[in-house]
Structure prediction request, 77 residues.
Amino acid sequence: PIGEPFIERARFILRELDSAVAQARGEREQSVSHLRISAPIELSLSLLPACIAAFHARHPAVQLDLHADSRRVSLLE
Prediction:
């Protein structure tokens, strides 16, 4: 129990050190973004898999949420 404050402070210092090293290397923390896609089932099965794979290769931090639906929707709504 006596060493717990030391451990917590050491962990904090190590996290700060890792952050400083990453910053010096030019790395930046990426925030996770979310993209929700709604599309007809036919499009979701035929065209979207290749598009999603290409998008994910360029933007790996973005989490995709695909909603496939068979009902017709007015874009103006």
The two ends are 61 Å apart (CA to CA).
